[in-house]
Amino acid sequence: MLSHKASAACPQGLSMPRTILSELARQNPDVDNSCTKSGANTFATGWPMVDSWTVWQDFNARQLYNLYKDIVDAEWRDPPAVTETTRFDRRIFDEDSLEHNILSKTLLPLVNAALRHARRVLGLDRSFDLDLGRAGRCYYNPSGDGRFSPDWSLCSEKRVASAVAYENLLPGDTKLSRKWHSTYYIDDTAQWRDPMRQVLHYCDKSGVRYGFILTELELAVFRYTREAIGPGIGGGGGGQRPRGQQQLPTGSYRVVSGSSDTSKLSDALQNTSLSSNSYQPTDSGGEYLSVEYRVIPWTNHGDGKRHLTVRLALFYLSMMAGLGPSAIQTEYPSFDSWFCLDNGGFMHNTTGRIEKKLPPNAVVQYLDPATSRPEWVTLEGVQYLTRASVRTLGVDRNQYYYVDEGNNRVYVTKDVDVYDRESEQLGCFDGLAWMGPDEVEKSNKNKKRRKK
User: Fold this and answer.
1) In the prediction, which pLDDT does 264 show?
2) Residues in Cβ contact with 86 at an 8 Å cutoff, skipping those fewer than 6 apart
3) In this structure, what DSSP letter does residue 15 have?
4) Confidence band for 140, pLDDT divided at 50, 70 and 90
5) Which intervals of the chain are annotated as region Disordered (predicted)?
6) pLDDT at 445
7) Of 192, 203, 225, 378, which residue has the fewest beta carbons closer than 10 angstroms?
8) Sign, CA torsion 142/148/153/154
9) Does residue 383 have a pLDDT over 60?
């Protein structure tokens, strides 16, 4: 866990310390939507289809607080004041007035300040700052057709699409409640589905799994899943690895915790890329399966441990999208689970947090379960497991394992030679850490010395 800890209760007469959790639980301004008009939503035939939707059970206040409590409970000495709104601001007429008079003016500034404070708590430099704002700073849609450009974007200096544009790590769209509401899936399927298809289109073009719709009455957050296409997806056996694997973006670095010296770990991490040639980028396009969604009412406020507010939900979603694995996949690991890194450390599959050792009772799962399987290559008549495939396997007693045709567990011990395609050399796994040929030779020499 981080070295920052929530302060103990204050003595009587003193105010409680301010935190991200307390500041983002503030009440939103009351919005007067009596001047808005109903009407059909934007529609385009090229948007991906949405077949079904289900409540995103994991996206809840208790679960998210448990994942981020060291950050949201850390003292925040200088949170910005919330901009006051006038009655002219609060009376909205269209999406433009909602976006500029309410969302950009009073809602998002505090969320962005919380994201910057979270970066400071984690001991990362300013290049890791995340910013949730207008999407004009991102790349697509040279035609200028609004049906193909989102309203909102999450951006980072670490993720630049070109010399003049950022990547959009979290696309979002604004709607008026008279045109879209979470209850419309009961009465008007098309009116509910088309805006979701619209955000799904933005996510597909950006290659990210998370998106959102924001109205003056509620926030709806989404996680999208791509349909598995072609043989071998999620199956066993060897051969080529299927397309659609999770990609750890080049130049992106993960959050560090779990040490009494957080700053040293942060410095080390900022000089280490987690990008690996063993990963392949997720393809754009294809059919989609169930959409997971969670709705947060605009009026929610107070106790962020018990229920989400709009600001708090946007903060959590931005942290997940900006610092955690976020590519669209055919299947996702458990929300609170860990992935084994090449150096024997562990990365959290949702937050991107890195630990040297697993927390107690932690679940270990490959970050793309649909592609978890052993794979062999034949060299001079001998079959070897590949290093890349071993890292997708299950973990038990600090060792990788797979299940053979007889339903028996086969452990990949230090005595099992494994082939690394990148270096074209044999090595082995010492527990969960990879040992190349030089390290194996050094280890064998040390054993001989000890025997003498």
Assistant:
1) 32
2) none
3) P
4) low
5) 232-266
6) 55
7) 378
8) negative
9) yes
How far apart are alpha carbons 180 and 196 in whole angstroms? 10
Q: pTM of the prediction? A: 0.82
Could you count the other beta carbons within 10 Å of the beta carbon of residue 290?
A: 14
Question: In angstroms, rounded to a whole number, what is the distance separating the alpha carbons of residues 406 and 213?
Answer: 48
> Are 424 and 437 contacting, i.e. CB atoms less than 8 angstroms apart?
no
CA–CA dist 370, 332 (Å, integer): 8
First to last CA, the chain: 42
Buried b (16+ CB within 10 A) or exposed e, 200-210: bbbbbbbbbbb
Write out pLDDT tens, residues 330-377. Answer: 999 999 999 988 877 899 999 999 998 888 989 999 988 988 899 999
Contacts (Cβ under 8 Å, ≥6 apart) of 263 = 123
Quote the strand ranges of 123-169, DSSP E.
Answer: 130-134, 152-156, 160-162, 165-166
Q: What is the DSSP letter of 421?
A: T
Distances (CA, A) of 67 to 3, 64, 338, 354: 15, 5, 12, 13
What's the order of all strands across the beta sheet hosting 338-340?
338-340, 346-348, 354-355
Cα–Cα distance measured from residue 296 to residue 452, given in angstroms and rounded to the nearest whole number: 67
Mean pLDDT of 259-271: 35
- Give yes or no for residue 213 having a pLDDT over 60: yes
Mean pLDDT within 107-116: 97
User: Can you tell me the distance from the alpha carbon of 113 to that of 53, in angstroms, rounded to the nearest whole number?
Assistant: 32
Calpha distance 83→64 (Å, rounded): 27
Cα distances (angstroms) measured from residue 129 to each of 113, 137, 159, 205, 320: 10, 16, 11, 23, 13
% helix, strand, coil for the chain, step of 5: 25, 20, 55
The pLDDT of residue 57 is 96
Which amino acid is present at 436?
Answer: G
Average pLDDT, stretch 309-317?
A: 99
Please answer whether residues 227 and 287 qualify as being in contact, where contact means their C-beta atoms are separated by less than 8 angstroms: yes
Report the chain's mean pLDDT, rounded to a whole number: 82
User: Do residues 311 and 102 touch, judged by C-beta distance below 8 A?
Assistant: no
| Tokens 């003056």 -> residue | 216
Exposure on the CB side of residue 180, measured as CA atoms within 13 A: 27
- pLDDT of residue 439 exceeding 50, the answer is yes
Residue 163's CB is within 10 A of a number of other CB atoms, namely: 5
Q: Output the six-digit token pair for 31.
A: 């919005």
| Encoded tokens for 375 | 């794979």
How far CA 362 is from CA of 54, 326, 398, in Å, comes to 26, 21, 12
Q: Token match 């690394």: residue? A: 420
